[in-house]
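In response to the reviewer comment on reproducibility (Comment 2.3), we provide here a single inverse folding case reported in full, input and output, so that an independent group could reproduce the run without further information from us. The structure tokens appear first.
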């Protein structure tokens, strides 16, 4: 005999929620899913009436469900928000170009304005070109740094007050595990925050902080939402993938493991004597950074000088090798990046901090100057 919905008690249950174990019908699941996100929004005071909110839209399940639910809740609860879809084109042939077609369909389906910014326009590089230089190892580091800046820059051009992203509970739990394994105390303190960047250019919010990935997939499936499901062709060896596999194994044994990890991350404290990086602005592009020169500018300099690994890690053999070559030529100058992000950036005499002879590339985004 079919089991009745545990909420309405009238219709037959068609699913069991991974998060709570409740057996629900479709309509009750939709309501519970949406109202939990609404509760998160209210509890964290994410928005104020009249704000312009840029939705980070990649075409994937998370951002597609985010755009749908933000539109639904904005109308149902009268948030008074102006919603805009903002996409980043990393320049990955056979992946991002296809997913952007999905975003364009979403724009018509949800009747929301869409803006697309690209790595090539902002930085003079595409991910395809970067991978040719760096290879398949560490390429996600470049993409993550550039994408974070690109979203902020795009939102600033649109005059947005806030950015919302589709980071879900699984993503945040993975980030906590990754930061624990790397011993990255600075990021560990802020990775569980539902709103980040309040001391920078734009606050960035995560309405899906307590929403399970499985439930996002179920919502998209039963609602028949149009989303792009292919994984990035450059991410098979990404460090996050190993953290994801670990958490999935934990979840099989203990379904509450995801939320437990998030709560653990929220409760962690750092000793008072531990020195934390202080926020400042990059001297080159004026983007928020914990160093004199931000990570994106360090990476761009390495790419433009044909030494892409200069921007990877705190101390790298490629950087030391370049230092030795410049020292041998008597041309070494030091731009102290400090902090934990980029270490030192070495610049040769006769060059500006952002140029390398004929290989100079100009940032045509909102960055003031040459990256």
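Designed residues, in position order:
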């Amino acid at each position: 005999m079919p089991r009745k919905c545990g909420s309405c008690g009238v219709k037959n249950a068609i699913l069991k929620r991974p998060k709570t174990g409740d057996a629900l019908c479709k309509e009750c699941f939709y309501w519970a899913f949406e109202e939990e996100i609404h509760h998160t929004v209210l509890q964290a005071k994410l928005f104020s009436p009249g704000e312009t909110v840029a939705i980070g839209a990649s075409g994937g399940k998370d951002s597609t469900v985010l755009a749908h639910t933000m539109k639904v809740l904005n109308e149902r609860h009268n948030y008074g928000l102006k919603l805009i879809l903002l996409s980043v084109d990393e320049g990955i042939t056979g992946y991002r170009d296809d997913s952007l077609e999905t975003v364009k369909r979403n724009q018509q389906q949800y009747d929301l304005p869409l803006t697309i910014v690209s790595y090539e326009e902002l930085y003079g590089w595409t991910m395809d070109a970067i991978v040719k230089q760096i290879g398949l190892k560490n390429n996600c580091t470049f993409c993550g740094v550039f994408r974070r800046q690109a979203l902020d820059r795009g939102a600033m051009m649109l005059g947005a007050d806030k950015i919302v992203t589709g980071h879900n509970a699984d993503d945040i739990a993975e980030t906590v595990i990754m930061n624990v394994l790397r011993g990255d105390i600075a990021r560990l303190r802020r990775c569980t925050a539902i709103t980040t960047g309040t001391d920078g250019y734009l606050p960035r919010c995560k309405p899906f902080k307590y929403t399970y990935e499985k439930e996002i997939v179920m919502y998209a499936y039963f609602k028949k939402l149009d989303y792009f499901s292919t994984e990035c062709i450059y991410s098979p060896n990404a460090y996050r993938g190993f953290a994801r596999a670990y958490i999935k194994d934990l979840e099989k044994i203990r379904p509450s493991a995801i939320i437990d990890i998030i709560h653990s991350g929220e409760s962690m404290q750092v000793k008072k004597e531990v020195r934390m990086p202080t926020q400042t602005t990059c001297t080159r592009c004026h983007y928020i950074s914990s160093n004199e020169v931000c990570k994106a500018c360090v990476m761009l300099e390495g790419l433009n000088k044909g030494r892409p690994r200069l921007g990877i890690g705190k101390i790298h053999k490629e950087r030391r090798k370049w230092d030795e070559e410049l020292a041998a030529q008597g041309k070494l100058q030091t731009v102290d990046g400090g902090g934990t992000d980029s270490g030192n950036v070495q610049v040769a005499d006769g060059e500006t901090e952002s140029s390398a002879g004929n290989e100079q590339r100009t940032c045509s985004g909102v960055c003031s100057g040459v990256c």
